[in-house]
Amino acid sequence: MHVLLLGGHGKVALYLTPLLLNRSWSVTSIVRNPDHESEILDLGKGRKGKLSVLISSLESVKSATDAKKILDATKPDYVVWSAGAGGKGGPARTIAIDQEAAKHFIEASFAYPSVSKFLMVSWLGSRRKQPSWMTDDAWASVMVAKNEILPTYAAAKLEADEYMTALAAKRKQEDPRPFQAIDLRPGGLKDDPATRKVELGITGQAKGTVTREDVAIVADQLLARADVEGWIDLVNGNVDVEEAVEKVAAEKIDAAAEEDVDEMVKRFFP
Questions:
Q1: How many Å apart are CA 174 and CA 150, to the nearest integer?
Q2: Which residues form the NAD(P)-binding domain (predicted)?
């Protein structure tokens, strides 16, 4: 398999790259800064798969046509969005990358003949209403993050998440070809070493945290399966990663279960 990794110099992507290569998959890592190319290529040394770097700014992706040009140049089977403005450049840049460029890549990828999976790295609080499994205290912390700490980022991610969810639902109705739209939604990110112990799928731990390395491990395992899709919340917990992923797959767990997907479809595709 060939994976297009958008945001290849991000910390999660740097952990994810060697895991994908160890599967004998090929990876094309998209980065904006050419100074990062050698660092990324070093991740491929001694791995089974082939690694390449494409220098391209996601900020310049202004349409699905622009995104398709990158897909045409790389011909991926799977697309991973692990990119973001990272709070740099102000609200306009956050909207341009985390919302608009993400939506353009979602649209282009869903329509691209070779692509059968799209994995978005989002965040745990990206939802409109409090789910039944989340405590009032946990939801209050989500609202603080959304309204006070990172309001532009939260709005941008929610727009991209809901667009992907709506397009996935629409595609299921119109296209018989299998397609996995996976929205991986970690809690607060830490730089500690991986624990390989998680709470995955649906979690009330909105204040929970997770290591970036564990996010990459889970993403790798989700991409390797043909039976997972939807919103998958993630924090560190007490369950082995392999067991947690198996449970999500076996029970078809989707943290968007209480979201109004029909309304999303109507909003984006009236």
A1: 36
A2: 7-224
Distance of alpha carbon 205 from alpha carbon 237, whole angstroms: 10
CA–CA gap between residue 70 and residue 105 (Å, rounded): 9
Residue-by-residue DSSP string for 104-160: HHHHHHHH-TT--EEEEE--TT--SS--TTS-HHHHHHHHHIIIIISHHHHHHHHHH
Distance CA 34, CA 115 (A): 26
Any idea where the domains of the chain sit in the sequence? Answer: 2-268
The CATH superfamily assigned to 2-268 is: NAD(P)-binding Rossmann-like Domain (3.40.50.720)
Q: Tens digit of pLDDT for each residue in 34-55?
A: 999 999 999 999 999 999 999 9
Taking the whole predicted model, whether its pTM rises above 0.90 is answered as yes
Cα–Cα distance for residue pair 148/249, rounded to 1 Å: 35
Which tokens belong to 120? Answer: 């978005």
Query: Tell me, what DSSP letter sits at residue 194?
Result: P
